[in-house]
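note to self: the first set is below, dont mix up w the second
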Amino acid sequence: MKNSRSIKHLVTTGIPKLALSTFLLAAVLSGCATNPVTGKSEISLVSESWELKTGAQNYLPARQSQGGDYVADPQVQAYVQEVGNKLAAVSDRDLPYEFAVINNSVPNAWAMPGGKIAINRGLLTELGSEAELAAVLGHEIVHAAAKHSAQAVQRGVMLQAAVLATGIATKDSDYGQVAAIGAGAGAALINSKYGRDDERESDVYGMNYMSRAGYNPQGAVELQQTFVALKDGKAANFLEGLFASHPPSQERVATNRQHAATLPSGGIEGRQRYEQMMARLIDSKPAYEAYDEARQAVADNRLKAARRLVQQAIDSEPREGHFYALLGDIEADEDDLNAADRAYDQAVNLNPNFFYPLMRSGVINERQGRIAKAKRRLNRSLELLETAEAYNTLGAIAEREGNLQQAEELYARAAQDSGAAGQTALTSLVSLRSKSNPAALVSLRWGIGADGKVLIEATNKTPRTLMGIDLQIRLVDAQGISRNYNQRLVGLSPGQVTQVSTGLRPGSGQVQLGIASIETVQGG
């Protein structure tokens, strides 16, 4: 067969393999470094600038994807920041520490490189004192200061380097994800399970920070005792939260107690102040429990029960935007789009910096033809968290407005997601390109069959079924005179390769192939 036409892939992904070599060379040159917390000499494959950049890039998206910041009672965020700042001031490493409270019922806390730390609303309601809060935050500060998350990344890089060095990897292996460790590191970093040594270091040095900041390190012992009791009781929400990355044990309780005995006795416990600062949050816990039940009811399509539960939550805590956003989802599921939009508006008013009600409001307003409002809401949601649904809806708006290049770009962004919105966007993207550049979707080759006639091989390069493909065939003889022919393929399924005989004899001339049009795109 002779190649007559080349095409570009619909969506190009990956990073040149040379990037891995460049990264590894830089890693080797970086050599060893002294851990600022432990004082140990360690191999360091990631720089501080990488840590700072990774934390800065991923902190907001990680918080958004887990529920956004808790804002119903602003004094809770201010209080956590205050306690965190006291501990950060006595840490062994100067980083731009930040402390955020995430609006999520799962009891959890995590740290990103660069000192970006978060604690869930669901964990705050389980603590009993400021000293216990300091124990949690001190523990997370050590994870950041001692580069535990960064070390987890570099262990992965070292493994890949070992594979390359031993020749196990093939030349076609794609190590783009390793080379681009900062691109999608956020989710992996906050869900990574630390080793026992990392946990032990964070316990011990976190207690040191507590003592330096004036807190009673016994709070760390009490914290672990509480966690062990919850673990033994098989508290479901703890098993999916903090215990997944910070498994408690009687050994840790004993180790903490032993280390606390080496530190100055006394210090702040802060039980009364903690209760005062968390009073509204703790009082509203039943409202969030009703909300979580309502979310499950929506998932089970029990909309009447969901409405009752979410209204119960709103009555108990009217300043929580999540409750109105869920009410908006219920109204949308029942096709009352005006009521849904009003509910989303209320959610946005209560928390203008959470992506979800902004995105949903944008989708609802696009469906109702309020395009200006839809654009504002969707674009603002993308500033907070990129979602396929927002990109897909903006793509549909751009396509209707005749901005086809912009529509293609938006659909392509959405199509990177494997969910329903991403798949819808992918179908729209292929459909648009079937009109703007149909030749980019099908590769064509030709050859001479056993009967001496032109045989065409057509390959669908897309993940969608292409219907009604009109082929253009041009035969050019030795004198340069051309004759044009058309042939129609009924359809090609994703990735399908088919051969068709044209019945044409090329003689001693040339054969040129092209795609005149593609009628429709199906699938997704």
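second set (the one i keep forgetting abt)
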Amino acid sequence: MLFRSLASAGLLWVLLLGHPAAASSPLQGAREPISFRVDNVQGDPAAQQKLQALRERIRREGETLVLLALPSMENHRYLEGIAPDVRQVAAEISSFKRHMESVPSGNFRIKRELANLPMLSAFLTEPALDAILASRQVWRIAVPRLLKPHLAETTPRVEANLTRAAGYRGAGHSVAILDSGIANSHPFLSQRVIHEWCFGSNVGTGIWSLCPGGAESAGGPGAASACTLSADCDHATHVAGIAAGSAAGVSLKGVAPEAHLVNIKIFSGYCCELVGSVAVQGVLAAENDIIDALDHVYSLRNTHSIAAVNISAGSIEHHTTHCDDELIKAPMDLLRSANIMTVVAAGNENSSGVTFPSCVSTALAVSSSRDDDTISTWSNYGPLTDVIAPGQDVYSSSVNFSANSVMNYVYETKSGTSMAAPHVAGAIAVLRGMHPTWSASTVEYWLKNTGKPITSASNGITRRRLDLQEAGRMPGKPVVSRALLQCAFGAATFDINWNAGDSAPVTSWDVDISTNGTTWADWYNGAGSGKLITLNNTTHYIRARGLNSLGWGELSSVHPVQDPCADAPGGPLPQSSAR
């Protein structure tokens, strides 16, 4: 069977980036990925070993799917905003195809050409490989990896309820979900999907496209509907709900409940995975299809305001340094140059290394936290983690299937970095609405440098848990402090101070006072950061909120102020003054 040949050939599969209790693949022990620069083959022993591994694979299987990156990709400057000219891309690919016409028929078959990058996927045999090596028209060859899919109300944990209350809900922006296909008619996601596309692969008899009619690429309504092959087919619907779900009469909300969704199905079917002694069908995504999907998202940049791409899938590799030699970095860079950020789940193997492709430096690698702001015990978390977000026991939209294959729309709890990543993708859509002029680098800075710091007990690494209110520079809950200045004549004088913590500069304050903690009176409105108050045998309560360019923040908690000088002799009282 094909899955046996894939195991021996060294293709890396991935674990489900949902809960780690999912059945493991028999291919987990696969060797390192096959990827090498063609011009290194003569003098680099590592490249020679990769080439030999590819030859052995071709000899076993007779035909192998590869990714081919053409020479102009070697020194690309996409992050500097220098995007490839699509006409030059087409010309470079055409020149390579003309060269390959000399290869005997049946030895080289193109699967797909990218529209925006000089890259293509193709099936080849050994004569075609030899022609490529001799051509000097290919920069890098890689065998695509195969990846599998990795709201208890968690959105208040990241302060999304506050951004919603302030009117920032992701309207006018979209999140692209690259996954198993969204159930578009689910009430939590109804009318939210504005674009659908599907990419799939047909490889031998063991891997088949789940696109309509078995095509390897298809678009239009229904093209990316939720697959029905396995339990993993509810994955995209759950992820999409976390990022942008909303429904009338349902209190549950996604992080960006007014954002649109770009639904791109990237998973193909495969047979088989062993669950105990039973072989079952499952879903996987070929790396080449993910690259195709990223290229497609870039093509949509001028027709849909896409804020982020979410990939909740990954491999069994664990990286503690960036994997920027991988071909998938180029389309991520291209998207970044268009201010579209790629958010990727970090993986669920309790490792200090993150999985591919979250190891790419231009991806945001997201690890999972629990409600008590500790790292989920199964979450990958290490030096390449960029952001932490809630990923444990997350309640969101889902689907299941009755005996007659009827799709039922439900809500379910799931755990995994798969659930953490869409919190961040939805947050990016909200930030785009709050700050339209922010670049991707600015968004990344505030995501990574605000929120509660969490330190791992196992490796001592500290990263911050997503806090959308702080990242958006909204006025946060004020910090109120008080210092006793004097105790005289039977009264106490306090210096009451307040500040906005890490939030953006506050231009005005609204401070309330109460004698019972229930009935409040307006005590101070205006600029400044403090006021004096004198008490005489009484207890008062203080609360405050701040205003900046984005609106009013949330009220602070209530702070009691009690006179400690009730037994002092009476006399005239000092006067209160504002400052």
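remember for set 2: The CA atoms of residues 1 and 526 lie 74 Å apart.
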